[in-house]
């Protein structure tokens, strides 16, 4: 489903991805209202049933598998709203996509040296 | 006629907003970042702009993928902070400069830019953060605003040259506006960052510093770069930097860099600002 990207490991949000991820991103967009967030928190399965997710997409959401969500057409600006109902720091989402633990991600990508 | 007071380029990273909301302005992690904006804040406060034109991208908050305007222009009387998932942030509503916005709408369409014209619009951190970085957190904003929203998420995004040309048009719109108001043009986004894919966390401080140094004095290269060049050099979301070209394009060829600042990383992003004034 993905188009070949000229820049390695950099999935541009183009037509194939926007098509593949439309329902997934729409599900996440629903979390930008208090009603959507309440419904997700009350019964995640019932909330997800409202959207035409593929089985793979549904499994990725349930597992909070950020790399897989992106691979299946999720765009961070939308799926990030999942972290508003299930708090996850953005750097952990980055590390998960990079396939690193958080400290390795901070050290090698961001040059971040934490104190202590 | 109205006056272009200055051009300001700045990051609009949402973590900046979160840091302010959590009271971390003076924490060890954030103080050097925020302190670097103080000279520009003081300059702007002393020169009292009337209107801020803010060029930014929506981040999936005002618009969903069901309809994606390549360019959108706010003509509203008032804009509320958007609910990005955590509830609207406690910043004042923004008062629109509706008269100038409609004048700009006329000039844009006559100049063959055709924006979505927005009468009712909530605005996300792309506009909130630059306003807070320049004006702090007042009870009421000291300027009226005109939001210009650029699609930088779903491809095709507009080209760098197109952003520059929009800046040229904005320059004419300011020059032909029959008031004596002073206008601050704010190009926002960047600097280098990437949120998506296995290259997530990519930043490029060297390229960022070069951008900060050259966007005023020598911007030709940045007009000529392709969108893919931006993604490669600044990361997939670092391509937001094309919106600084609207600001730079509306200024004279010769500008003076009044203030500049760079800090990395702010969350996962190279962050900073530049304040430019036309040579007169």
TrEMBL record, chain A:
Annotated signal peptide: none
Top-level lineage group: Bacteria
InterPro entries for the chain: LigA_sf, Xdiol_dOase_LigA
Keywords, sorted A to Z: Dioxygenase, Oxidoreductase
A GO MF term: dioxygenase activity
Matching SUPFAM superfamilies: LigA subunit of an aromatic-ring-opening dioxygenase LigAB
Domain Extradiol ring-cleavage dioxygenase LigAB LigA subunit, chain residue ranges per copy: 24-109
Positions in coiled-coil regions: none
Annotated protein name in UniProt: Extradiol ring-cleavage dioxygenase
UniProtKB/TrEMBL annotation, chain B:
This protein's record includes keyword Ribonucleoprotein: no
Domain Extradiol ring-cleavage dioxygenase class III enzyme subunit B: 8-274
InterPro entries xref list: Xdiol_dOase_suB
Keyword Oxidoreductase among UniProt keywords: yes
The entry's keywords: Dioxygenase, Oxidoreductase
Pfam families, per the entry: LigB
Coiled coil: none
UniProt GO molecular function: ferrous iron binding; oxidoreductase activity, acting on single donors with incorporation of molecular oxygen, incorporation of two atoms of oxygen
NCBIfam families: PRK13364.1 (NF009901), PRK13365.1 (NF009902), PRK13366.1 (NF009903)
Descriptive protein name: Protocatechuate 3,4-dioxygenase
Native source species: Roseinatronobacter bogoriensis subsp. barguzinensis
